[in-house]
Design brief:
This protein is mostly helical. The protein is built from 6 helices and no strands. About 85% of the residues lie in helices and about 0% in strands. The longest helix has about 55 residues, at about 60-115. It holds the Pfam family CA109-like.
Amino acid sequence: MQMQQNSQRAIRTLFADLKTCRKRWESLNTDSLKHAQNIVNTVLQLLYIKQLQSWSHVLEDFNSLNSKYQDKVTSQLPDLKEKLNSFLSKIAYQHKKMLIIKQQMEQVVDEAVSNLGVEYLSSLPIFVSFTLSDCSSIMNEIIDMYTVELNLKRTIFNNLLKINDRKEGMLYISCWINEPYINLKRLNDIEELIESEFSS
C-alpha cells in the first residue's frame, strides 16, 4: 500500500509540475505576441516603401529620402527579432522542462512496475481507474501538443521577415497567438479526468 501511495504522490507531483510549465508557456506566448506583431508591421512598412520607390522612379529626391527611411526601418529589425527570439527561447525552455518531466514519469512507471508488479502497468489501476500506462499516455499526449506547437513557432519565427503581404503576416500572427496544435478542449477534458482521479 505504501509503495502505491508513493507512486501516486510522484505522479500527482509530475502532473502539477507539467501544469506549471503550461501556465508559464501560456504567459510567455501572450507577452511575446506584441513582438511578433512589431516584426510584421515593420516588414509591411518596408514592403510599402519599396512599392513607393517603384512608383516614383522619376523623382530622384523622393527616392533618396525613401532610401534613408528604408535604411532606418530596416535597422530596427535585428532588435525586434532578438526580442521575439528571447521569448521563443523561454518558451523552448518550458518545453525542455516538459521533456524532463516526461522522463521522470517513465522512471516513476518503471519503479512502480518493479515494486508493485507488471499488472499495474495496464491491468490494475494505480488510482481510481488510471493504470500506470494511462498516466504515461495522457502525459505524452499533452507534451506532444507542445512539441508540435514549438516546431510551428520556430517555423513562424524563421518566416516573419519573409512575408509578402499583410494577409500572410496576419496569418502568422493568428497562428502564433492561437496555437492551433494545442487542443484546449482536450486539455480541459484531461484536467477534469485528472482532478477526478487524483482527488479520490
